[in-house]
Design brief:
Layout: H1 3-6, H2 12-30, H3 32-41, H4 43-51, E1 68-69, E2 76-82, E3 87-92, E4 97-100, H5 105-113, H6 117-124, E5 131-134
Antiparallel strand pairs: 1-2, 2-3, 3-4, 4-5
Helix pairs in contact: 5-6
Length: 136
């Protein structure tokens, strides 16, 4: 929470701080595509891709929709999410990728932060959203 929301600042300093927070938020939105590029260049991300058999330089999707590797799952290889369309994609270790329509961002975040991605997927996603096979 920014300091203004806490009520800690008033006057010109509060406006300066508010503008600072607004600028940071705008920069975050402006650099989303660049963030994917930077992530793909990160050594730990590259190692994670290689660990699950993905080529970090040739991931499926556009910079707006990239499949990110899932480490430690016995069933799920990669997960991707597109905020604007609310489409979730899940690539399974068997090779097939499925798209799930109109998945709320909160569900995606809960999936990504769950200890068991496969368990969460089966409890909260499978059978609850319109599903289609993604052609590879």
């Amino acid at each position: 929470m920014d300091p203004i929301s806490k009520g800690n600042m008033v006057g010109p300093d509060a406006l300066t701080e508010h503008l600072h927070w607004a600028l940071l938020e705008a920069e975050q939105h402006a650099h989303v595509a660049k963030a994917g590029e930077l992530l793909r260049a990160h050594p730990k991300f590259r190692a994670g891709c290689e660990l699950v058999g993905l080529d970090p330089d040739n991931l499926r999707g556009s910079p707006e929709f990239t499949m990110f590797p899932v480490i430690g799952s016995s069933n799920i290889m990669a997960i991707g999410y597109h905020n604007e369309s609310r489409e979730l994609r899940v690539q399974f270790k068997g090779g097939k990728t499925y798209a799930y329509a109109d998945v709320p961002p909160e569900t995606h975040m809960s999936l990504m932060t769950s200890e068991s991605k496969g368990g969460f997927f089966h409890r909260e996603i499978r059978g609850r959203f319109e599903t289609s096979t993604v052609k590879g």
